[in-house]
């Protein structure tokens, strides 16, 4: 046996078998410019964080300016080593169709968009802030989402569909937690949740990790940590479905209504926000009844009208400081470690968790920040082929069997190439 073979077998079976899979960081920007200083180029491709992109009308396909611009931005993000989360809305008025008579046409178009983006991403958010986007009721959203999810076989292999949460305290006609509770409880299946959480430095103080109550009548935390209240709701039925926090910032009352993030961003906010996510992931790591948070995404980076007061790229006011804070977070190895989770058992309705195909090249390079005993995941139910599937802790019998079988196959293939 050659030295090369012995090292291949050892590094894959020992290091991979310890539960390390392809990693992606918590760091994320909505409309990421993918500029070099915002990305840690020392990390492997596909493991440098996330970019959230949007298709605001499901009928905008290849050849339309909006689709082509979105795909171009997504490919630039992927070329920079990021993974892409793609949000697709029904149209400019309704985030999903309200009427069942429109479900088939909408689902047909949505499925076509997933196929148009094959090779770009497999992770899609179905709509955006439904109570705000067209005042969609929980029942209306569920009816649309369930029909779409039932047709996943028509989408590229490994496609994951995330249910969209509400914008909290946005709308006097709905209580966000009740809406989310009703929606998540009625889903027939789901691959994860795209939730939003915002911080109000003026009322809640500069630290996003500090619990906050602005209005006594509002349910849950009134600041950044509201994401924890939302997870308490989604985990009731879906404890092993990951959460992506696809929007956050320090705006509390809407664009153009002072203070915007360019006015109220507190120095050091990004490191503290990511520290709070890490604290949540680590303190719940041993409990299979809690999902992992896999991304925290600032809204926005790209200076796209009319969002300059929120934009890191525009750099207006305190956004120049915010950009530097994000750069520090993007280069912090702590933000690329996700603790191991014990097996949460069969998902609701029976059967094993989905094991979607990867949307980036496989690698056995653990990379910086991959400390021993940590579990690194970029997608629900995904393994690097010689580690443990998500949901199996490194020391579990399931992991041991998985690792032994996978290492045997990989070792045989490596020896055959010698």
Describe this structure in words.
- This protein is of the alpha/beta class and 418 residues long.
- It has one domain: TIM Barrel.
- It has eleven helices and eight strands.
- Strands 1-2-3-4-5-6-7-8 form an eight-stranded parallel β-barrel, surrounded by four helices.
- α1 packs antiparallel against α11 and α4 runs parallel beside α5.
- The longest helix is centred in the C-terminal third of the chain and has 20 residues.
- The relative contact order is 0.16.
Can you summarize this structure?
The chain has 418 residues and is α/β, with parallel strands linked by helices. It is 31% helix and 10% strand.
Write the layout of secondary structure elements.
Blueprint: H1 3-15, E1 27-30, E2 50-55, H2 65-79, E3 83-88, H3 103-116, E4 123-126, H4 138-149, E5 160-164, H5 176-186, E6 193-196, H6 201-204, H7 226-234, E7 243-248, H8 261-264, H9 269-283, E8 293-299, H10 319-330, H11 397-416
Parallel strand pairs: 1-2, 1-8, 2-3, 3-4, 4-5, 5-6, 6-7, 7-8
Helix pairs in contact: 1-11, 4-5, 5-7, 9-10
> CATH first level: which class?
Alpha Beta
Strand order of the largest sheet: 1-2-3-4-5-6-7-8
Mean pLDDT: 80
Can you count the beta strands? Answer: 8
Helical content stands at 25-40%
* C-alpha termini separation: 9 Å
Low-pLDDT sequence parts: 1-22, 344-418
CATH topology: TIM Barrel
- Cα radius of gyration in angstroms: 21 Å
CATH homologous superfamily, by name? Glycosidases
Sheet with most strands: 8 strands, parallel, barrel
Overall body shape: globular
